TrEMBL record:
This is Nitrate reductase molybdenum cofactor assembly chaperone. It comes from the Bacteria. Residues 215-247 are annotated as: Disordered. Gene3D superfamilies: TorD-like (1.10.3480.10). InterPro entries: DMSO/NO3_reduct_chaperone, NO3_reductase_chaperone_NarJ, TorD-like_sf. It comes from Halomonas saccharevitans.
Amino acid sequence: MLSLRVLARLLDYPSAELQAAAPELIEIINDERRLPAALRARLMDWCQRLLEADLLELQSEYVALFDKGRATSLLLFEHVHGESRDRGQAMVDLMAEYRAAGFELDARELPDYLPMFLEYLSTRPEADIGRWLGEIRHILALLSARLEEREADHALVPLALLALIGAEEDVAAHRDSVKEEAPDDTPEALDEVWEEEAVRFSAASDEDCALQSAEGRRLAERKKAVPSDPVKIMPGSGPADRGPTDR
């Protein structure tokens, strides 16, 4: 499903290459036609703005949005575990899932980095895509609401992922609470982050090895018994529709 790769690219740090690829991104979004027409139009308009905008301004906005504070983090497990050891175990479990599927990571990225996760999903069957998006839908809804509050186009990415499984209305449940959240990108809030214990991504003792996160248990259980298609991807529509294997 190439539209997942488009959404991954739209969350990347802005570059000249991304700007140059904007026309191709627009074409893929339009051709797959899996998203509602209004949402496709908003995504294509955003791609056009990326093409025409000043690159330095795009980069400055990206840093302010994603590199300060945790509220809009693109690391999925940070929204669930923060910087606890459970997050480390969840990363190990997800890495094992990638390797079992023959998906090897570039060492520069963490396995729960959302663009990387979308790259992985783009290689999977529709049933797997729907299942995974269903499992992280609460994170996607919260992230979309927080990005909306900051009036960022990037909110369209988690919204589009929710729309693929017919769950875009989930965002509404978070909009009021997000308005009440204290800013986490102030100097004071950032100082508190530096004072917290660093996350550990590897087991340093037998006790750590025995540690099982919620994600770890869920993955183990899912390998034993997987319900059939609990969440389905929205089908394409219209004469220009192409399935995920037709491109």
